[in-house]
Amino acid sequence: MSRPEIRVSRLHKSFGDNHVLRGIDLEIGQGEVVCVIGPSGSGKSTLLRCVNLLEEPTEGQVFVGGIELTDPDVDIDAARRRIGMVFQQFNLFPHLTVTENLTLPQRRVLRRGKAEAAKVAARNLERVGLAEKADAYPASLSGGQQQRVAIARALAMGPEVMLFDEPTSALDPELVGDVLAVMRMLADEGMTMMVVTHEMTFAREVADRVVFMDGGVIVEDGTPERVIGAPRHERTRHFLSRLLDPAMAQVEEETSDQVGKSG
Amino acid sequence: MADTTEKTPVPRRKGMTRRQKRRLSRGIQYAVFVAAVVAFGVTADWGRLQNQFAQVEIAERMFPEVITLALKNTVLYTVTGFGVGLALGMLIALMRLSSVGPYRWLAGIYIEIFRGLPALLIFIFIGVAVPLAFPGTEIIGGTYGKVALALGLVAAAYMAETIRAGIQAVPKGQMEAARSLGFSPGRAMVSIIIPQAFRIILPPLTNELVLLFKDSSLVLFLGVTLEERELSKYGRDLASQTANSTPILVAGLCYLLITIPLGFVVRRMEAKAQEAVR
C-alpha cells in the first residue's frame, strides 16, 4: 500500500451514554476504494462522518492527506476542501440551479472567478452525464440525477478523497445503477474513496477492500473475495446471509450489541 | 347487494338525520344575520350617518394632501421601521442561535422585553424618556429617526423569532453539505441557509409589515410637525377642524388601500409555498 491518504487511529465516539465507535483503526491508501458494510447501528456512517469531522470524535485521531483533522488548531475549512462528501439525502441546495450548486462553492470557498467556476462546473456535469440539466432546479430532477449532481458538486472542488454515505440508499432501485456507474468511473480514475454502502455487487466488483463493522468495532477487513466470499467471523456470515437473501431470514431476538439507531 | 341490506339493515335514526340538522342550524344562522342587517337598516339614521361620515365636499378637500403627505409619511415610517427591525431582528436571531451562552441570553432577554411591552410605551419611551434621561442626545433624522427606531425596536423582537424559526426550518443536511464543501459556519449561513430561510418566512414577514403599517399611527404620541403627519394624525386633525368624521373614514380607506393588497400577496405566497412543499 502506498502512503495512507486516510488514517484513523484509536477512534472513539459517544453520543451521551451511547458509545457508537469503540476504538477504530483504519488506513486507506492513495487511490484505494474501501467499502464499509455492516448492520444499521454498527457505527459505519458515524465513522465516515468522523473522517471529515462532521462528527467530532470523542477520542483518537483522524489524518487525511497527512494533516491531522482532530488537531484543535487545524483550519478545518481548508482541510475539508480536500475531502468530498456525498450524502444519502443528496443535500443539494434547492434554491440554486444545478450549475449554481456547482459554481457557488467554488466561488465562495475557493475564490475562483466566474468564468473558471462555470468551466469546471460544466466539465464535471458532463462527467456525470448531466450536462443538459445545467439550468434545472434540483426539485425537477430524479433522485438518481440529484445524487449525480451532488457528486459533481463535490468533484468541482477538486478533492483528493471522496466519502460516500450510503449514496444509493434513498434511491428507487432502477436509479441506483446510474449513480454506481459514476462511482465506478471515479474508482477507475484512481480516486481515493471510502464508501458506506449496502450494495454488495458494487463492493465485490469495485472495492479494493471491504471493511465489516458491527457494534462500533471493525470485525473484518480484507479483499472483497475474503470478506464477502469467505467471511471468517460468525457475525459477518450472519449479516451477509441476511443481506444477500432477506427472504430466508429467521425472526430473532434483538441483540444488545446494536448501538444507536442510525448506521 | 339486495340480500346484504336485508341481513344488516341500516340503523334508523330517531328524529332528524344529520343532514337535516345541519340544514336547520345553517338556516337559523342566516336568519339571525338577515334580521340584524334589516334591524340596522331600519333603525339607523341614514341622513345623519351620511352627514357625519360621507361628506363628499370634505373628502375632496383632503386630496391630494392625504396621499402626497399623510400616506407618503405612513409608508416612509413603516418602511424605515421595517428596515431597522429586519436588521436588528436578524442580528438577534443569529445571537439566539449562537453557541456562545451570553449572546443567547441577551437575545432572549431582548425578545421577552420588547415582545411584552405595548408599542405605545416604546414610542413614549423614545419620544419622552430618552431625551430626558440623556439630555443633548439627538436621534439622527429627527422624528423620522425616532419613529424608525421605535417601530424597529418593537418589530425586531417579533422578526427575530420569525427569522430564527425560518433558519431552523432549513434541513440540517444543508449546513452539513455546505461545511463539507469547505464553507465556514458564517459563510454557509449567509450563502446557503439564510436565502432559504427567507423563502420560508416571506409570508410572516409580510404580515409583520402590515402590523407595522398600522402601528405607525402611534407617531401621534411623539408630537409631530404638520409636515410629519401620517394618516391617523392627519385624519384626526381634519376631523376636529371640520367637526366631522369623514376624514377618519378617508384615512381608514387609505390604510386599507395598502393592507388589503398586501394581505392578498401574503395569501398568494402561502399558497405557492404550500405547492412547493408538496
Automatic annotation (TrEMBL), chain A:
Keyword Phosphoprotein included in the entry's annotation: no
Membrane topology reported for the UniProt record: Peripheral membrane protein
Pfam family of the protein (one): ABC_tran
Principal location: membrane
Domain of life: Bacteria
Localization annotation: Cell membrane
Keywords annotated in UniProt: Amino-acid transport, ATP-binding, Cell membrane, Membrane, Nucleotide-binding, Transport
Record-annotated ABC transporter domain positions: 6-240
InterPro entries recorded: AAA+_ATPase, ABC_ATPase_HisP-typ, ABC_transporter-like_ATP-bd, ABC_transporter-like_CS, MetN_ABC_transporter-like, P-loop_NTPase
Record family assignment: Belongs to the ABC transporter superfamily.
PANTHER family on file: AMINO ACID IMPORT ATP-BINDING PROTEIN, GLUTAMATE_ASPARTATE IMPORT ATP-BINDING PROTEIN GLTL
Protein name: ABC transporter
UniProtKB/TrEMBL annotation, chain B:
Transport listed as a keyword: yes
Transmembrane segments annotated in the record for this chain: 27-44, 75-97, 109-133, 139-160, 181-202, 248-266
Start and end residues of each stretch annotated as Disordered: 1-22
Key word Disulfide bond present: no
Compositional bias (Basic residues): 10-22
Pfam families in the cross-refs: BPD_transp_1
Domain ABC transmembrane type-1: 71-266
Lipid bilayer topology: Multi-pass membrane protein
CDD domains in alphabetical order: TM_PBP2
InterPro entries tied to this protein: AA_ABC_transptr_permease_3TM, ArtM/GltK/GlnP/TcyL/YhdX-like, MetI-like, MetI-like_sf
UniProt keyword annotations, A-Z: Amino-acid transport, Cell membrane, Membrane, Transmembrane, Transmembrane helix, Transport
Localisation: Cell membrane
Principal cellular location given in the protein's record: membrane
Source domain of life: Bacteria
NCBIfam families noted in UniProt: HEQRo_perm_3TM
Family according to the record: Belongs to the binding-protein-dependent transport system permease family. HisMQ subfamily.
Protein name listed in UniProt: ABC transporter permease
The species this protein was found in: Streptomyces griseorubens
